[in-house]
Structure formats: structure tokens, C-alpha cells
Design brief:
heterodimer, A: mainly beta, 6-stranded mixed sheet, globular, B: about 110 residues, mainly beta, 7-stranded mixed sheet, 11 strands, about 0% helix
């Protein structure tokens, strides 16, 4: 069964400090991983996806198949990064997209 | 630039009442989804539709039914609402296929008393 685990409900980081949001997954096949973000009073939106290996707003994520992880990183946190972040997984077998429980990132001034 | 449109935005129901949440997308997307968002539980998939005429259960389908009326519209029905269905409901769509991103609606806040 597909499963996405985000171990931290809340992460507080000082502005300018590095950020790492953890995501681990469980899937027997070949997954595709995403990070979605929900800013206050805005719709959920894609932040980045593994398949395109992009860097958005300074965030990057590397798929580590050995550790089944897709942690989200940013070297220097900014106040506007405060938001709810969701890791998500899909497969090449069907169109089902499963999300983790989310991590609220709070950037301290 | 409508994208994914959900109606209503807010709804209060009494236990046992029924209602349908509507969702429409104007991006010619093949796949559509219904999620519920609850504090501490994240986003959980209720049902999805990979193409017009098909629907599949997600993680938490009990108590819900869906209809993919046409390519644009995907409705979610609560036949007999329960307090446990109090949640924020999100509809989303994508072109379909591996790695394609979801476009979300603005959500429906539902309270069941």
C-alpha cells in the first residue's frame, strides 16, 4: 500500500536558518514524489516535483530510494516561507495521489 | 482563469441530511479528485476519476458517492451526513499521467451538527 509519512507536525525555524522538512514514503513500485504548499488564504499549489528536478523559491528535494525519502530543503529560510507543506506520492500504475499529514512551517523573525 | 471551481464555499448540515458538493474544471483535464482536509490528518483521498465515465475509491470512501457527470464536472454526494464528515473538502484536477500536477479548488467548509 502507498503511504507518505511526514513526522513533524510543526517546524519552527529562524529566518536565515536552513530548513529541512522530512518526508518518507512506502511504495513497492516506482513512485513519483511531489511537494505541495498551502499559504494562508491561498489554494493548495504545487511547489516542486521529482520528475522535473526543479528548484522553486529556493527549495529543492532529492529522492533517495535507499532511504525512501524525499526531504524538502532550503538553505536560508524567509518569512514568506511560513505555510503548510504536504508531501505527496503517485505511481505509474494508476492516477491515485496520496498525501502525507502535512508539516506547518513557522519562520521566526 | 477559473481553473477548478467548487460550490458551495460553506455549508452547515444537520445529521442525516444529504447534499452534493459540486466541482467543475475548465482546463480539459482528464483526472479529477476529491480530498478532505482535517487537522492532524492532512489530505485524504475520498474518490478519484481517471477519466470521464470512471471512478475509483480512495483512502476514505465510506459515506460518500461520486459522479463524473462529464469531463468537466465531478460531484461528491453525502447521502446521510454525520458529524465525522465535518471537514474542508477540496476538489482537484490534472491532465492525468505520472508526474502531472494537481490544480486545486478553493475548498468547501462543511459542518455537520
Amino acid at each position: 500500500a502507498q503511504r507518505v509519512t511526514q513526522p513533524e507536525k510543526l517546524l519552527s525555524v529562524f529566518k536565515g536558518a536552513p530548513v529541512e522538512l522530512k518526508c518518507n514514503y512506502s511504495y513497492s513500485g516506482s513512485p513519483e514524489l511531489f511537494w505541495y504548499v498551502q499559504y494562508s488564504r491561498q489554494r493548495l499549489q504545487l511547489l516542486l516535483r521529482h520528475i522535473s528536478r526543479e528548484s522553486i523559491k529556493g527549495f529543492t528535494a532529492d529522492l533517495n530510494k535507499g532511504e525512501t525519502s524525499f526531504h524538502l530543503k532550503k538553505p536560508f529560510a524567509q518569512e514568506e516561507d511560513s505555510a503548510m507543506y504536504y508531501c505527496a506520492l503517485t505511481s505509474n500504475r494508476d492516477d491515485k495521489i496520496i498525501f502525507g499529514k502535512g508539516t506547518r512551517l513557522h519562520i521566526l523573525p | 482563469n477559473a481553473g477548478v471551481t467548487q460550490t458551495p464555499k460553506f455549508q452547515v448540515l444537520k445529521t442525516g441530511q444529504s447534499m452534493t458538493l459540486q466541482c467543475a474544471q475548465d482546463m480539459n483535464h482528464n483526472s479529477m479528485y476529491w480530498y478532505r482536509q482535517d487537522p492532524g490528518m492532512g489530505l485524504r483521498l475520498i474518490y478519484y476519476s481517471a477519466s470521464e465515465g470512471t471512478t475509483d475509491k480512495g483512502e476514505v470512501p465510506n459515506g460518500y458517492n461520486v459522479s463524473r457527470l462529464n469531463k468537466r464536472e465531478f460531484s461528491l454526494r453525502l447521502e446521510s451526513a454525520a458529524p465525522s464528515q465535518t471537514s474542508v473538502y477540496f476538489c482537484a484536477s490534472s491532465t492525468g499521467g505520472v508526474g502531472e500536477k494537481l490544480f486545486f479548488g478553493s475548498g468547501t467548509q462543511l459542518s455537520v451538527l
